[in-house]
Amino acid sequence: MLHYFLYPLAKHHTIFNVFQYITFRTIYAVVTALLLSFIAGPYLINKLKSLNVGEVVRTDGPQSHLSKQGTPTMGGAIILLVVIVSVLVWGNITNSYLWILVFVTLGMGAIGFADDYSKVVRKKKGGMRPAVKFGCQVAVALVAALLLYYSGFNTVVTIPFFKEVQMDMRWLYVPFTVFVIVGTSNAVNLTDGLDGLAIGPMTIAAATYMLLAYLAGNVKIASYLHIMYVPRAGELAVFAGAMVGASLGFLWFNTYPAQVFMGDVGSLSLGGALGSLAVITKNEVLLLVIGGIFVVEALSVIFQVGSYKLTGKRVFAMAPIHHHYEIKGWPEPKIIVRFWIIAIILALVAISTLKIR
Ligand code: 57M
After folding, report:
1. 55 Cβ closer than 6 Å to some ligand 1 atom
2. Cα 262 to ligand 1 centre (Å)
3. What pLDDT sits at residue 153?
4. Backbone dihedral region for residue 123 (phi beyond 0: left; psi -120 to 50: alpha; all else: beta)
5. Cβ proximity of 101 and 277 under 8 Å
């Protein structure tokens, strides 16, 4: 909004020129989101407590989790609010990609909110019916995919490390986009099972996409690095920046021992936003590396369920994989911080693909 209202004043005073720069607006999107989280966080936590919006912890998981019973949940609502406010303040509101990101984030957030509400407030065991929840996620992602496709979005997919390997997916890019967005949304949801376990790697992944969006949207840098140039995608650095600030701000309260959980309202929306960032910056396949922690968590569930159905044996003591380490006796903070370290290494590997091609 500031870009829309203040940049035109540059013809009167050069100071207003700063509002045209994506770098400047991205930095302040991070700072704004971080400060807003610090201000609104304690208020929201108290509000959730007074409304009795407390987590119902399952009793069949690791026993250490029983002490978390009643921790305020649905804190992801604050992440959503903070991201959207920061993006509206610092983003170029005439950029259509920004609005697609806002749509997916709010759409997935609404689904997560409905699920949390039925679990926590209406005390419905298991929450929303899985098929309904999945159907709604597909619907949100499909709208985004169709908007991109019919606006002439580039349907070519590149493979990291191999710049010559390219594939034009044509209309198949629509289901592919849906798969990336819904898959990431659910993978982040599965990861969100220990204090700070999802939001740490989310901060790192969003920071990586902040950089990639800037590079992909800059014609000179994109041609120098031989990466796909995506006109107007640079603006998504502002969105990713708001995600970085809001995630770090949430981590402040969600770090072990957590004062608040994000709930599905947080995990589904952040996951959906991350998947959309991967698609619009044309780094869809690289998401497997950048979001490697989320991928491994999801794969652990697929292998566990698959193996149990086929052979009657489990691969892990319990899936998703973070539960496996808990049952092996690793203290919770050790698992969390080690997963963060791996997420940082994966982000660096992903960034290195810009040069190793
Ligand atoms: C959500 N939710 C957490 C919190 C958070 C198919 C199967 C693998 C599904 C999976 C599942 O239900 N996953 C989705 C996981 C829950 O956290 C809430 O949910 C929100 C995210 N959606 O924000 O509101 C619990 O996680 C803990 N937590 C923290 N700190 C945080 O910051 O400690 C969360 C956030 C919270 C709290 O204890 O209550 C969850 O784990 O339920 N199912 C499972 O994960 C279950 N796995 C399982 O059944 N494995 C089987 C098969 C099906 C693969 C197996 O291995 O044989 C486990 N989860 C639990 N108990 N809690 C096992 C049993």
Report:
1. yes
2. 13
3. 97
4. left
5. yes
Residues 6+ apart with CB under 8 A from 175: 145
The single-letter code of the amino acid at 13 is H
Rounded CA-CA distance 18/1 in Å is 14
Pocket probe mutation, ligand 1, options 45, 55, 119, 137, max atoms within 8 Å of Cβ: 55
> Phi and psi dihedrals of 168, rounded to 5?
-85, 115
Q: Is the CB of 250 under 6 A from ligand 1?
A: no
Q: Is 60 in the pocket of ligand 1 (CB under 6 A)?
A: yes
* Cα 323 to Cα 60, 68, 307, 329, distances in angstroms: 11, 15, 17, 10
- C-alpha 352/C-alpha 334 separation (Å) is 27
Distance 270 CA to ligand 1 centre (A): 17
Q: How far is CA 314 from the centre of its chain?
A: 29
- Predicted confidence (pLDDT) at residue 126 exceeds the cutoff of 90: no
In the structure encoding, which two tokens stand for residue 50, read together? 């007074």
Q: Does ligand 1 come within 6 angstroms of the Cβ of 268? A: no
User: Which of 282, 304, 278, 295 has the alpha carbon at shortest distance from 342?
Assistant: 295
Hey, is 168 helix, strand or coil?
Answer: strand
Per residue in 7-56, pLDDT tens? 898 889 988 889 899 999 999 999 999 999 999 999 999 999 999 899 98
More confident position, 355 or 83: 83
Distances (CA, A) of 260 to 31, 202, 216, 332, 354: 22, 17, 36, 16, 37
Give CA separation, 145 vs 74, 78, 98, 279, 326, in Å: 27, 26, 14, 9, 38
